[in-house]
Automatic annotation (TrEMBL):
Protein name: Signal transducer and activator of transcription
Gene transcribed to yield this protein: LOC116320031
GO CC term (a single one): nucleus
Entry keyword Transport: no
Swiss-Prot/TrEMBL keywords: Activator, Coiled coil, Cytoplasm, DNA-binding, Nucleus, Phosphoprotein, SH2 domain, Transcription, Transcription regulation
Top-rank taxon: Eukaryota
Amino acid sequence: MAMWIQAQQLQGDALHQMQALYGQHFPIEVRHYLAQWIESQLWDSVELDNPAEETKAKRLLDNLVAELQKKAQVQGGEDGFLLKIKLGHYASQLKSTYDRCPLELVRCIKHILQSEQRLVQEATNASSGSGGQAMDTLSQRHQQINQAFEELRLATQETENELRKLQQSQEYFIIQYQENMRIQAQLSSLSSLPPTERTQRETTLQSKRATVEAWLAREASTLQKYRLDLAEQHQKTLGLLRKQQTVILDEELIQWKRRQQLAGNGGPNEGGLDVLQSWCEKLADLIWQNRQQIRRCEHLTQQLPLPGPMVELLSKLNADITDIISALVTSTFIIEKQPPQVLKTQTKFAATVRLLVGGKLNVHMNPPQVKAVIVSEQQAKALLKNESTHSESSGEILNNNCVMEYHQATGTLSAHFRNMSLKRIKRSDRRGAESVTEEKFTVLFESQFSIGGNELVFHVKTLSLPVVVIVHGSQDNNATATVLWDNAFAEPGRVPFIVPEKVLWPQLCEALDMKYKAEMHSGRGLSDDNLVFLAQKAFSGSSNNSEDYRNMTISWAQFNRESLPGRNFTFWQWFDGVVELMKKHLKPHWNDGAILGFVNKQQAQDMLMSKPNGTFLLRFSDSEIGGITIAWVAENPNKSGERLVWNLLPYTTKDFSIRSLADRISDLNHLLYLYPDRPKDEVFAKYYTPPLCMFIDLHKSQ
């Protein structure tokens, strides 16, 4: 309920935006009277793209209706009677609206809650003046964009007013022109009159005609000036539209796509598209209004041709505005949910494409169909250079056609591909040492739709992030390396799918840390010491100073093509093995700080020799992928007074599937203190498996 209390404090534009979220699809009264219940439900646990989740969504709908009916029953008093009827009506309305499509209710409520949260957050940041420099910069950018929209709105309103004045002036001109033609006709008919009367009438009519013709000449010149001035104003507005469109499409949307790409490596969620969509829709509205104005100017010019450059000017304006709207429509056809970047054949996968202006240009009135095909890197290059007129394919995707659906509650037009499957793949000839897991493909989504009653037809295409196709799970780690390198180091606007052959070591550290934190679901990433350890492994270095590695570069070959010295695996394969082991079995221990991990054998010895006997630490195995070993200090049983550091054979996923790490540490009585000096039970006891006798006792007591 806390969110609803805050939402009610919104003011001005934010309040209007919040109110606009509600309507017949979900009345604001329902939000108000069921605020606490709505905010306590697990809406995010429902996967909207999974039809199997419909049962869960149906349960939420039924519970919502039941809560509304319950709330209606407890209303009393004179005011309560009306409220009781109203809430009962809303319960029936929501039941009938969403009974056959309960997932749409969940989609609607999720959209409302996310939008409210965003509006409240923006209002909080604006009032507190805090939130860091990044938030200030973001707010400034948004403010500049909104100011530019206000300028465009005023400019468009001004040209609309001027156009109406021009139209009225032209209509009056035509009336006067017709009057002049009538005078001319009267003069021509004077020949049948007697000479005296004819002369008198002729003088009057000629004087009248001279006055009207003089007015027409002056007014024609004025009309032409009006037209030229209006064309100049339209040119300025189009310049502002182009500038605003560049900011939104080439800066804001590109940044969103970059965040989406980094999210593939475990970066923060790219964020919703609601703000971007609202900007794109405003652009669409303004562009269309200006286009209609230019068309009306053309009609006026055809209705009353006057000497001058107007025809050419309007033709140029029309071509320019068509280019602007074309760029908007083609650029806002985007992939909201990317297909998996490691794609296994014969395995179901999903993706979602969205048109950010779909609700504004009436595209949704005739929902377009979208087709997905898989293409190679070379085919993608040809597509972007417009060298390929028809879409070639490098494989066969099942269930690759989908009709875009308009969701009225959220105002989105999107196509959800839920059950695609890559049946087969056609590989290209590989270069040199390149393996199949280095070959990149992309899923091409294409569609065709018209706007303005088939006036303009657009063929739109968008490419997914690069995907690596595998046929067996054993290829997964090498394919993930290709994807991680591409996501981390791809340059904006690159030729598909070129990446640098080598990067600075700190750049790779950032990518590895992002990946590691995401897999551990933890704020505890890789420390400077961890990264020094990884640098030593990657470069066979011995320095313990991170500054010594700062300006070093690591190549793709060093990362995942060449084996580490004396090993049969690459740097990435070793690191990925650690991540997989930790993710599956040891995540809580990492997050507790119990695993040092990134420590070599010699470092472990140096650290433990200064500690009491029975002190131990956990370090990743150097010799085995996905192995962790226990090193501990104890007396040498063969030589009195001598102490040694011992290392157990590494444990792997297979071992932890049989018995957990905590239980294994519990079993080893000679392990007493976790480095540096924590009693082992203090750290691991909460993870021990209770003895069987405890289960029996508990069962008896029940």
